Amino acid sequence: MALVNHSTIIEFLLLGVPEDHHTQALVFVLFLVVYLLTLSGNLLIILVIRTNSHLHTPMYFFLNHLSFLDLCYSSVTVPKMLENLLSEKKAISVEDCLTQAFFVLAFGGTELCLLAVMAYDRYAAICYPLLYGQMMSNELCVGLAWGSWGLAFLDAFINTLLAWNLDFCETQVISNFICEIPSLFPLSCSNSSDNFAVLLGSALLHACGTFILVFFSYARIVSTILSITSTSGRSKAFSTCSSHLTAVSLFYSSGFLRYLMPTSGSPWELVFSMQYSVVTPLANPLVYSLKNKEVKASLKNMLQKSLQHLR
């Protein structure tokens, strides 16, 4: 693909990090710890699911995909931010910026789809327990998982391809720590209205479509739970959904606001970007390990076996 459109500006400056050197050092240590915890937490979830045959169910099949996705998500954003915190010049080439923006949008879209699929899985398990095995067959689970990846990457490819054709010849400063498609529009000296319209349309279709599936799944789940007469039965049914509801709330709230709000350089853009690309990948393994009894039990057994081998 020709790069003549980007000949005027060859790099952007990511200035979403603090300018004070002492603050930068503290932020570097903080996000290095966050990144290492994110990697270890999600790898541990994947390992537990792979090694425990009792967790080879549709719910944990999707959780396995979600943990792998969070590994990828944080690895696209945090290492570059750590590099910029140590560098005097917080620069990223136009090509690398567009590549990062592509993966941020692709992984974000995949997470939206996976969370919606996981909501449907909980709906099938709670509302139709006797038919759950038929409704969530292995073939359907694989199709839903790879369909989530495929749709999100197609959406990201279309939006990034359009952004690649923009002319960047004005200010080169991005007031963020990562490159995102919306942040590129104010930097373009060509007409980006078509790009914005396509991004808005795809965001509404992608986000609202998945949100509707989540909403109606949980509307039916709540209705079913309320119809259960025993308190213990209600508590058990709700406990299987609480982890997923927490993950949905964390990701949807920040992702919706970031991509649907106009880019204006507001500090809130940085906050929302950080929440869905850094905080959520760290929070997901914590939420699913602390709130899920089966995962906690599997983690405990795995640690006990590890300690026995060490002795």
Which short descriptors sum up this protein?
Rhopdopsin 7-helix transmembrane proteins; olfactory receptor activity; sensory transduction; three-stranded mixed β-sheet; disordered N terminus; membrane; single chain; mainly alpha; 311 residues; 3% strand; 10 helices
Structure notes:
This protein is an all-alpha fold and about 300 residues long. The protein has a single domain, classed as Rhodopsin 7-helix transmembrane proteins (Rhopdopsin 7-helix transmembrane proteins, Up-down Bundle), CATH 1.20.1070. Helix content is about 75%, strand content about 5%. The chain is built from ten helices and three strands, in the order βααβαααβααααα. The protein has a three-stranded mixed sheet. α2 crosses α9, α3 runs antiparallel to α8 and α7 runs antiparallel to α8. It is globular, with a radius of gyration of 21 Å. About 40% of the residues are buried.
Structural class label:
mainly alpha
CATH topology: Rhopdopsin 7-helix transmembrane proteins
CATH architecture: Up-down Bundle
Measured between the Cα atoms of the first and last residue, the distance is: 58 Å
Average residue-wise pLDDT: 83
Largest sheet data: 3 strands, mixed
The CATH top-level class label? Mainly Alpha
Evaluate the radius of gyration: 21 Å
The geometry reads as: globular
